[in-house]
Each structure stands twice: as structure tokens, then as C-alpha cells.
Amino acid sequence: MTHPDPSALVVTRATRADWPVISGWAAAEGWNPGVSDGDAFFAQDPRGFFLGRIDGEPVSAISVVNQGADYAFLGCYLVRPDQRGRGHGIATWNAGLAHAGTRTVGLDGVVAQQDNYRMSGFRSVHRTIRYAGTAPETAPASGVRPVVPGDLPAIFAYDRECVPADRPGFLTAWFTTEGHRAYVRHDGHRATGVGVLRPALEGLRVGPLFADTEADARALFAALLDGAAGQRIAIDVPEPNALAVKLAEEAGLQPCFETARMYSGPVREHAGERVFGSATLELG
After folding, report:
1. Labelling 163: which of 98, 104, 194, 208 has CA 20 to 30 A away?
2. Domains along the chain?
3. Of residues 2 and 24, which shows the higher confidence score?
């Protein structure tokens, strides 16, 4: 009778109960996850999270979250430091990507992995720069109000124009989770921007910050940071959006981390100029 090799990696789907393991590894890498990210991530695609285990002990992770029939987003690609260099990462990668099927996959790749992603067929589209620092004093601007449940259809529609996917499960949780501050700017006829501020393990994170114009973005940014002066904040800014870079720099924030947005294939048209801050590097 043969017995399974206890040193062999076994990759299976992760559950919501496994999220503290994954987020703990992310925190150790300095990614500073939000304290309530897990609920929103699993709300979009509860089957899109994977853990690699050796003899039952978690050693690797990946998420490949499906967002519609044509698009998925890859994140949380992690291998425990003491288990690196043994092939566990690529085995976990392959298991996770299988979940996407024929979908185009997007990711925000850390610098150290970008060449590996290119060799796997991903192309770079732009850099994303994390700006962080101390929140400045702000005053609420006109036309901005807290999100209420009735705003969700308009938020879904606005988000659909800014990213190459539909992700209502994620957005519902992201904009309604207790502790998240969610705002919409409205001109009386339609939403002209949306934003969320959420608590992270270290300080506060802004994202998304989507807006039609610089004025809309500034108004939302001011509302999100109202009362947060003196606390540490961070926002992930697409580098091609010069107005977004300007907003972060004028707030006194400094670059501290970067990734590259990469795609494995074509994606639908979307208004990247409205993205002043990404929602999360794990789900786009």
C-alpha cells in the first residue's frame, strides 16, 4: 500500500475562515490590507481563493477572482518565506489560473515578480504608485454625501465605466461594510464620482476614488478625509493620471510602493482617466 508524500504540495480552495492566514502573510509583506477586506473579496467570488498546503500546513496562496464571463483578477500571490524556491509558487499559480478558464486575467504585480508575469504572457499597461503620509485637514465640499443602499445601482454603473469588469458582489460589500466611509458626488442628475475610506492594519486606505473631473475628485477626497487629519493614509494612484498624482502630492503624500497593472489578454474599454485611486490591488 502506498501513502501520499507528506512533503507534496496540495492546492485546494480557501474558505473565508482561511482569510486571516492570507491577510497575515500580506501584512508581513508590507501590503497593509484592510481590516475587513476578506468579506468583500469573498462576496465577489467565494471560489476564487486558494491555499497550498504541505502535510496540512499552509505554505502558499493565490486569488483569482472572476468578475463576469470575460475577466478575472489575480492577487494575494504569496509563498511563506521559509518555503520559497521549491516550486510551490508556480504550482499554486497554475492551480489558481485554472479557475479563470478562458477569461483575460488582470493583476497588479510587485516589481520583483513583473518579469515572471511577462514570461507568463502578461503585458504591462501602467505603473500604480502607492502614496502615503499624514492626512491633511480638509473641509467637506458641496454635492458630496454618504452612500445609502439606494445608490448601489448607480455605483455599479459608475464602476463599470472605470474598470473592465462587472463586480456587484464586491461593490455591495465594499460600499456598505461597517467601518468603511463611502461617499458619492452627485450633480442632481447622475453620479459624478464615488469613493471609499477604509481602516487598514496601519492607518486608513482611500480607494476607490473614481471621478469625472479633478473638481469631483477633490471634493470626494476632502469628504473622505474629513475628521481624519493627523492619521496615516494611503492611496494607490495610476501613474498615467497626472491629476491624480497632483492630488496626492498636494496632500503631502509620498510614493512608498509600486506595482504594474498587467493583463494576459484584451480587456473592454474603460475610462482610466476617471481612476484617481484604485479600490484595491487584490481585486483591481
Report:
1. 98
2. 9-125 (3.40.630.30), 130-277 (3.40.630.90)
3. 24
